[in-house]
Amino acid sequence: EGRSLVSEEVLRVYTISLYSAPPQTEPAIIDEKLAVQVSPLAVETVSAGQTVSVITWWQALDSLPLDYSYALFLRDPSGAMISQVDAGLTLNDRPTSQWQPQADYEPLQLQMALPSDLPAGEYSLALSVYYWQDPQPLPLEPGTDYQQDGNLLHLADIIVES
């Protein structure tokens, strides 16, 4: 699997490009249609009001006739949802119906702004994928390197400091 451009910054006359490759783990499979891998968080301890970013790596396993969306959840230790972000699942502005089957994994940075009044403590980020006209999460295949809670894929644990 090749490297992909993750970010690019221009400083005066220099362009700094950051390339990365997908993690070397078994992907999570979503509804036999999508494969996803998750890069470890660069920062796991944050403050309320900050934005948390997770780099995910996606691949279509077959042709996808629908344009899927994702939901990113912030959950407390009991599993209760604290915050949610929904967006279209796109790679380089291409919705899932335009993804090429079995192409190399491509990165997608998911972001969530934490509530400014979020109490200090331990939280988790989880992901689901769905079709917008039927917002039920697509099923996850069991037995991957990633933790699952039903049809939610565990992405990361974070600690919020006061």
N-to-C CA distance: 40 Å
Strand content: over 45%
Helical content (DSSP H or I, runs of 4+): under 10%
* Structural classification: mainly beta
Evaluate the radius of gyration.
Answer: 16 Å
| Poorly predicted tracts of residues | none
Helical segment tally?
0
Q: What shape does the CA trace take? A: globular
Task: Describe this protein's structure.
The chain has 162 residues and is an all-beta fold. 0% of the residues lie in helices and 54% in strands. It contains no helices and 14 strands. Strands 5, 7, 8, 12, 13 and 14 form a six-stranded mixed sheet that branches. The protein has a four-stranded antiparallel sheet with strand order 3-4-6-11, with no helix packed on it. Strands 1-2 form a two-stranded antiparallel sheet. A hairpin with a 2-residue loop joins strand 13 and strand 14. The radius of gyration is 16 Å and the shape is globular. The N and C termini lie far apart (40 Å).
Structural features:
mainly beta; 162 residues; 4-stranded antiparallel beta sheet; 14 strands; 0% helix; single chain; 6-stranded mixed beta sheet
Write the layout of secondary structure elements.
Blueprint: E1 4-11, E2 14-20, E3 28-30, E4 34-38, E5 45-47, E6 51-60, E7 68-75, E8 81-88, E9 90-91, E10 94-95, E11 106-113, E12 121-131, E13 148-149, E14 152-161
Parallel strand pairs: 5-14
Antiparallel strand pairs: 1-2, 3-4, 4-6, 6-11, 7-8, 7-12, 9-10, 12-14, 13-14
